[in-house]
Amino acid sequence: MTIRDGFIGTVGATPLIRINSLSELTGCEILAKAEHLQPGGSVKDRAARHIVLTAEQEGKLGGSGPRELVEGTAGNTGIGLALVCRARGYTCHIVIPDNQSAEKIELLRALGAVLHLVPAKPFADQGNYYHVARRLAEERGAFWADQFENTANARAHIETTGPEIVAEVGRVDGFVCASGTGGTIGGISHFLKAQSAATQCYLVDCEGSSLYNHVTHGTLDATGSSVLEGIGIRRITKNFAMAQLDGAFVGTDKESVQMVHWLLEHDGLFVGGSAGLNCVGAVKLARKLGPGTTVVTMLTDGAGRYTSRLFNDHWLVEKALIPASVTDLAFVS
Question: Which of 150, 151, 165, 254 gives 20 to 30 Å between its CA and that of 188?
């Protein structure tokens, strides 16, 4: 066994697991990187580590530079950054919309992040958490992580996640995942396409996001909204612009919540809503590519940060998302 170098050294190298129920019902090998097993609990640990280490290398953080970091986040990147900052001796300021799950907000407090809760507002509003974070960093003379436009985010996946997948699988017929900042899909698809142009890389987008229309129609049209946290966006970030995609699917909130409960019931996998959406996308891509192919996706985080929602009957009824107990994948259209 290899001894890891502190918290920083534990990020990455997650298991790639076969999702048995989905594989057996589609006739494909559906595999997922178990990012919910990261030390900070999500795929965003990779971006957090790379953003901080890159900033140090560039003299923007630590040394004679600032020792404070600011980021606007829906939660998981903030959790990763809070832990990396603890490990490196920095103060971490997190600006977060007040509509995020209570579990994530309380965890950020427990990790020692200085929290700035702001009302949820659209990006065009200067009260949006992204803009508030930028101004706060300027006011404090702190380093602004800027996970949406800082391409250290995508490079984390070009340098770690993509190579891990290829080393573990060999041939990848298809890759699919959702997008928030665009770092995960941007970096992984960029790497996989460089390895083999034949690998089919797809976005699975949530309701209310513009990215499906951007990929398929070249517009930023969007309607509706989604209860899924940390994914979906109505603009093209520098990280998402790095993605090399062959197409896109839409996954509904109902499909995603049903998948979260399906994975727990059939596979013992306790994962969050974005992971549910990714697995919905994996089924759709498996059906498109046909039996015998290998499809890879991401289990982006665990369900422990969403139990008050995804496993709360009152909330599920209120949102008309009560999942049915099913024995096939007909709920994925």
Answer: 254
